[in-house]
Amino acid sequence: MIKGVNHMTIGENVKRFREQKNMSQRELASKVLVSSVMINNVEHDKKMPSVRLLKDLAVVFGCKTDDLLETEENEKSAI
Asked: Of 25, 44, 49, 71, which cross-links 53 as Cys (Cβ 3.0–4.6 Å)?
């Protein structure tokens, strides 16, 4: 992922990766052993995913946890 390009929230990143894999929230929840309500809450930025969940999501998506965590807010704080 190119630094400075992604201006999404963690939830938006999770949703984008899920949709790229053509998965429903229910399918993703089943793969990472959480409820579909939890996936929905994460995607809508109502709940922050745990470290374990972030790791599990990264495995399912075939990405790094950093790819899920990269947000506009993180980029600003790095300046």
From this structure: 49
